[in-house]
Amino acid sequence: MQRDVTAHLTLDVTTPATLALAVAVSDGYGVGPGPGRATGVAGSSYENLTVTRDGEPVTVEEVQDENGTLLHVVRAQPGRLVVDYAAHLDGRHPDPVTPAPTTGQRLRFLRPSRYCESDSLAPTAAAEFAGLSGVDLLAGVSSWVGTRLSYVPGSSLPTDGAVRTLLARQGVCRDFAHLVVALLRALDVPARLVSVYAPGLDPMDFHAVAEAYVDGGWHVVDATTLAPRSSLIRIATGADASDTAFLSVYGGRATLAELEVTAVVDDLPSDDVRELVRLG
User: Fold this and answer.
1) Which end of the chain is more exposed for a tag (fewer CB within 10 A), N or C?
2) For the chain, what is the domain count?
3) Ranges of H-type helices in the chain
4) C-alpha span between 33 and 46 (Å, rounded)
5) Reduced DSSP (H G I as helix, E B as strand, rest coil) percent helix, strand, coil of the chain, to 5
6) Nearest Cα to 36, choosing from 51, 23, 46?
7) Residues 167, 88: one domain?
8) Closest listed residue to residue 61, CA positions, set 210, 53, 51
9) How many CB atoms lie within 10 A of CB 39?
10) pLDDT tens per residue across span 93-112
11) What angle do CA 80, 82, 86 make, to 5 degrees?
12) What is the mean pLDDT of the chain?
């Protein structure tokens, strides 16, 4: 499997700000860790990241958060900031984020979180999915959410959580994922949110899916069914969207003027919600 992804962001920085970008593919895809990720080549997979302000190169600091997400931090002065990222992935690789959660991670991904109010949805989950487990549970939750929500761009607010999404019966990918995560946690299944590059997605953008820990591994649940799960590429991982934003601005002001994302694969695979699929 050959996959190519790009992200282009243009931002107008009006006051000095610290920007945290989550656009790079997760460590473990064979592009090489550390500072060399920005320009290096590891095997036949590679990536490149450039950041400029008014046409001049800007220093970028690479850090890894507690969930394994690679963040690129920019301390930006006022001006027009342009971010360009590209990566080529040759083949599928082992799950780039530790497949077996520690006890602390398991507990974290079982608790309610800001956008995944699993405690409020516990009665609904118990009533709808009684007796299901493993792959049958994941398929059941995916189909249930997918048939009860309509995918409507612009229909939700960035502050909407799973409960409001269920009441509204519509949303975008992150809303679908939040509801899936909340229902699974309510059934004592560790679940988390993942932002991904998604070959086959239309319209193309960053995409959000859920991951659930069943049968000894983290498996993808995407109730939107908008892109085949085996082609997805992990970017950021967390309890919910508060951990996985592609751009966060601190201590100043920056406005997103342009965003363009591409993700292609040499042969788009088929998908079946009744099968367990891992990112790789």
Assistant:
1) N
2) 2
3) 103-108, 122-128, 134-148, 162-168, 173-186
4) 11
5) 20, 35, 40
6) 46
7) no
8) 51
9) 12
10) 766 666 688 899 899 999 99
11) 175
12) 92
Pick the range with the lowest mean pLDDT from 51-60, 129-138, 179-188, 268-277.
268-277
Does one domain contain both 154 and 74? no
Q: Token digits for 54? A: 């008014």
Beta strand 70-76 pairing with 17-21 = antiparallel
Query: What is the model's pLDDT at position 28?
Result: 66
DSSP bridge pairs for 49: 85
Residue with tokens 């751009």: 247
Output the CA torsion 127→129→133→138 (10° steps). Answer: -140
**Do residues 230 and 127 share a domain?**
yes
Q: 234 and 120: one domain?
A: yes
The answer to whether the Cα torsion of 58, 96, 265, 219 is positive or negative is negative
> Is the separation of the CB atoms in 147 and 176 below 8 Å?
no
Q: 221 and 252 in one domain?
A: no
Write the single-letter amino acid at 97: V
Please report which confidence band the pLDDT of residue 40 belongs to, taking 50, 70 and 90 as the band edges: very low
The strand pair at 150-151 and 170-171 is best described as parallel
As to burial, measured by CB atoms within 10 angstroms (0-12 exposed, 13-18 middle, 19+ buried), residue 116 is buried
Read off the pLDDT band of 280 (50, 70, 90). Answer: confident
> Running DSSP on this structure, what letter comes out for residue 166?
H
Which has the closest alpha carbon to 266: 90, 86, 94?
A: 90
Work out the end-to-end distance of the chain between its first and last CA atoms, rounded to an integer number of angstroms.
11
Tokens of 117: 């109010």
**CATH number, domain containing residue 220:** 3.10.620.30
| Chain CA centroid to CA 20, Å | 15
Q: What average pLDDT score do residues 187-208 get? A: 97
